[in-house]
Amino acid sequence: MELLTLARRIGEPVAVALGAGAQETAGTLAEYGAVRVLTADAPEFADYLVVPKVDAVQAAFQAVSPAAVLFPSSAEGKEIAARLAVRIGSGIITDAVDLEPGEEGPVATQSVFAAAFTTKSRVSQGTPVITVKPNSAAPEAAAAAGTVEPLEVSFSEQARGTKVTSRTPRESTGRPELTEAAIVVSGGRGVGGAENFPVVEALADSLGAAVGASRAAVDAGWYPHTNQVGQTGKSVSPQL
Fold first, then answer.
1. Which one, out of 69, 99, 183, 190, has a CA that is 20 to 30 A from the CA of 121?
2. CB–CB of 228/218 below 8 Å?
3. Would you say 107 and 101 are in contact if contact means Cβ atoms under 8 Å apart?
4. Residue 94: which H helix or E strand, with range?
5. Is pLDDT above 80 for 135?
């Protein structure tokens, strides 16, 4: 919904929805400005890593000839974006926090070097491929047609190169995903020890927040490495 809100600044958004449940999401995508929704479902999307989705997005790119291609700045989103940029011979901008139209193409704002600087950049070759950090834009509803169209995808030889052999669900804490959370409560050396982290968790739960930890706290064994925030941990973009 954030990506659609930003995409409306530079044109009429066409959304791509892949895998099981793609049809069900079309209504929401239309509500936030998708003029068309290209859908595809195939076992490859679930059974193999990344490349089948790159094949699908490339097919959508060729069908639409867009002004830009936007992805979320997740680990998978950035890998798909990078592979697509290589295939179509375009420049890529990652971790954008804002997007605006420009005379020579979309201009992306990035917060770089641990937020010490703000830069504005544009892709100078090919169709811009841009990944956007979560919580960068407030989703704004703007109803559009949302015409659902099937997307024909021909999978490349590389699509079956890495097979998913098993899946283990993560134990749910009931808290939001750290990298996408609007609020993060993070603990460091000041917490004093693992026995005091329940204070951080209690505050996070009262705010509906995710729990983070500094490198010092993680290295000391006070909290799991999966919750480490920072340049050597997870990149977060909360509003608080």
1. 183
2. yes
3. yes
4. strand 92-100
5. yes
CA distances from 22 to 14, 41, 46, 83 (A): 14, 8, 13, 22
Architecture of domain 178-227: 3-Layer(aba) Sandwich (3.40)
**In sequence order, which residues have a C-beta less than 8 Å from that of residue 83 and are 6 or more positions away?**
50, 51, 54
What is the rounded CA–CA span in Å between residue 32 and residue 20?
21
pLDDT at 60 over 90: yes
Check for a shared fold between 2-160 and 178-227.
yes
Q: CA 101, CA 106: separation in Å to the nearest integer?
A: 5
For the stretch 186-210, what's the b/e string if a residue is b when 16 or more beta carbons lie within 10 angstroms of its beta carbon? bbbeebeeeeebeebbeebeeeebb
pTM of the model: 0.84
- Which residue type occupies 151? L
* Residue 172, pLDDT above cutoff 90: no
The CATH class given to the 2-160 domain equals: alpha beta
